[in-house]
Amino acid sequence: PPLDTILSTHDFEDVASRTLTPKTWAFYSSAATDCHTRSLNNSLFHRLLFRPRLLRNVQRVSTHTTILGHHVSLPFFVSPAAMARMAHPEGEKALARGCASRGVMQCVSTNASFPIGEIVGAVAEEGEGEGRRPPLFFQLYVNRERAKSEALLREVEALGVKAVVLTVDAPVAGKREADERVKAEGGLRAPMSGGEAGNDKKGGGMGRIMGSFVDPTVRWEDIEWIRRCMKLPLVLKGIQCAADAKMAMEMGVDGIMLSNHGGRSLDTSPPAILVLLELHKCCPEIFDKMEIYVDGGIRRGTDILKAICLGATAVGLGRPFLYSLAYGQEGVEHLIEILKDEVKTSMRMIGLTTLDQAHPGYVNTLDVDYL
Ligand code: FNR
Asked: What are the residue boundaries of the FMN hydroxy acid dehydrogenase domain, all occurrences included (predicted)?
């Protein structure tokens, strides 16, 4: 269908389910075992209700904000996801160009289908002034051969990437049965990790086969080692309880991303929103100490705005950006425009004109008071 008939993230998902190859759809859409967390990630947002404040002049609204000091046009970003080239030949490069043209931050995965240098280069070609460009972050999976990770971190820093995001919620790959069932097509490579999707006796699980380079021995002490490899700000992605959030704070990391890997790692792990509420109860001081991001199941401007009201600096979207790539860079830009309109409309409806006015009072969380 033509791009102008696509009105929501759901429309993009619908097209992707019909046009991506069966392997690509299985890899992108799959989640761990019974996929409870994948569905809960989104459905929990519907149980948070707004407390709109009315009769305010909402003609002019701004969605601008900052992420680790970098200016961005919108409070959402591209979460790191492997192998975008399976959806479009330009993959992460098309994502980078779309994000650059709209002022959106992108986090590039260690399992990206292009080397980081090529992705950075794709944006540089756009010719936009360096100063106005949104930041690129790099997501790290620690390689069992640590020297490879050290070299990658040095390369990333030299390329002008603005932060490193260490993923901590996938020491091993989750059990994703849809991904196992569909055989891999061959020739699928992740150049930075050296991963190659194939088939083995157990099946065709791309996540499992491509994730086999990841070092499961990583522990809190290794944060020091990563700090020694580069000077960039460090974010931990995949934090799922207040105790670990506090550990991260004590270690002095610059930010945490509350995430369950889109439900792909541990089924029945908690949606990020619940962890965000846990932080309000157990360590409210954390919101002044570092930036908190959330991802998982974010599909609407209202989802984005609720997370921001509850204290998130910005939120990530994984699958929706991969699905938008069915239309290449134009699809990415269209997705960003859709979400931008939705964010602006919901801001007006609850009485906000800038994001720094957002606070928890705009959201009624009683229905999800699990703690
Ligand atoms: C991911 N995710 C992910 N995370 C990460 O840190 N490194 C990675 O390489 C990947 N790869 C990846 C591949 C695919 C196909 C998906 C769908 C996801 C997780 C990702 O960053 C993010 O946490 C989730 O995608 C967020 O959930 P939604 O927005 O997809 O619901």
From this structure: 1-368
261 is catalytic: yes
Q: How far is the CA of 213 from the centre of ligand 1 (A)?
A: 17
Whether 168 and 215 have beta carbons less than 8 Å apart is answered as no
Q: Which protein residue's CA is at the shortest distance from atom 13 of ligand 1?
A: 81
Buried b (16+ CB within 10 A) or exposed e, 287-320: bebbbbbbbbbbbbbbbbbbbbbbbbbbbbbbbb
Quick check: helix, strand or coil at residue 207?
helix
Phi, psi values for residue 5, rounded to 5°:
-95, -5
Place of tokens 């002044």: 288
Q: What is the ipTM of this complex?
A: 1.00
pTM of the model: 0.98
Active-site residue identified among 28, 141, 293, 362: 141
If you search the block for the tokens 């305010």, which residue do you land on? 56
Which run of H or of E encompasses 294?
A: strand 291-295
Query: In sequence order, which ranges of 30-183 are alpha helices (DSSP H)?
Result: 36-46, 91-102, 116-124, 146-158, 177-181
Q: Which of 83, 319, 321, 324 to probe ligand 1 with, by most ligand atoms within 8 A of CB?
A: 319
Q: Is the CB of 13 under 6 A from ligand 1?
A: no
Catalytic status, residue 293: no
AA letter at 186: G
Catalytic status, residue 367: no
Per-residue pLDDT tens digits of the chain, which is 371 residues long: 999 999 999 999 999 999 999 999 999 999 999 999 999 999 999 999 999 999 999 999 999 999 999 999 999 999 999 999 999 999 999 999 999 999 999 999 999 999 999 999 999 876 556 667 999 999 999 999 999 999 999 999 999 999 999 999 999 999 999 999 999 987 889 999 998 888 998 899 999 999 999 999 999 999 999 999 999 999 999 999 999 999 999 999 999 999 999 999 999 999 999 999 999 999 999 999 999 999 999 999 999 999 999 999 999 999 999 999 999 999 999 999 999 999 999 999 999 999 999 999 999 999 998 87
